[in-house]
């Protein structure tokens, strides 16, 4: 279902939550999923979705830059992926229903979290996925290293289907 962002960290879920910007939620993945992430991140204690509402779309505004609207962009991408119409409608509905009513999520919200984590709690792994199905992104084969400075401008650093390890 549209964009999903998983963060893997050596922190506990409540420690992660204590640094979240307003409007952003962290929901832990199950222990089996955490186990699947462990080989990609030593010392992983928590794997969680980062979301605004039901998806991560509002955390990656750069993905929608120049689009007529978020929904138009999502629709076009689902069409390119050949997603059946009923699945697309359900996915758009989740995207829409999950929106915090009237809450503005500033463009640098994700970076604020990434920076806070890197400075105060060490490295974390971020993985962005896209799809119409209601499932979390799989564990990518590849892990790329990025410094905090490289994540400052926009969200191009957050490549899809690659796990990105952000260090200070
Ligand atoms: Zn969405």
What does this structure look like?
There is one protein chain. By secondary structure, the chain is of the alpha+beta class. The protein has one domain (2-167). It contains 5 helices and 6 strands, in the order E-H-E-H-E-H-H-H-E-E-E. Strands 2-3-1-4-6-5 form a 6-stranded mixed β-sheet. It is globular. The N and C termini lie far apart (31 Å). The site of zinc ion has 5 residues, from strand 1.
Beta strand count: 6
Q: What number of domains?
A: 1
How many angstroms does the end-to-end distance come to? Answer: 31 Å
Portion in beta strands: 15-25%
- Structural class designation: alpha+beta
Q: Count every helix, treating DSSP H or I runs of 4 or more residues as helices.
A: 5
Average pLDDT level: 92
Largest sheet: 6 strands, mixed
The strands making up the biggest β-sheet line up spatially as 2-3-1-4-6-5
Following the backbone from N to C, one meets helices and strands in this order, namely: EHEHEHHHEEE
Tertiary shape: globular
Which residue ranges are poorly predicted, with pLDDT under 50 across at least 5 consecutive positions?
none
Compile the SSE list and pairings.
Elements: E1 2-9, H1 13-18, E2 25-28, H2 31-37, E3 46-51, H3 70-80, H4 85-97, H5 109-121, E4 124-131, E5 143-147, E6 163-167
Parallel strand pairs: 5-6
Antiparallel strand pairs: 1-3, 1-4, 2-3, 4-6
Bound molecules: zinc ion.
């Amino acid at each position: 279902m549209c964009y999903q962002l998983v963060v893997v960290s050596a922190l506990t879920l409540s420690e992660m939550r204590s640094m979240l910007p307003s409007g952003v939620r962290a929901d832990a993945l199950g222990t089996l999923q955490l186990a699947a992430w462990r080989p990609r991140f030593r010392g992983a204690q928590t794997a969680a979705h980062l979301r605004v509402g039901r998806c991560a779309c509002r955390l990656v505004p750069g993905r929608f830059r120049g689009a007529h609207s978020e929904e138009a962009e999502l629709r076009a991408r689902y069409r390119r992926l050949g997603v059946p119409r009923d699945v697309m409608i359900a996915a758009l509905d989740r995207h829409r229903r999950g929106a915090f009513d009237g809450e503005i999520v500033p463009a640098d919200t994700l970076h604020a979290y990434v920076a806070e984590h890197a400075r105060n709690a060490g490295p974390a792994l971020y993985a962005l996925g896209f799809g119409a199905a209601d499932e979390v992104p799989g564990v990518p084969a590849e892990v790329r290293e990025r410094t905090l400075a490289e994540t400052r401008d926009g969200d191009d650093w957050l490549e899809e289907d690659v796990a990105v390890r952000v260090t200070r």
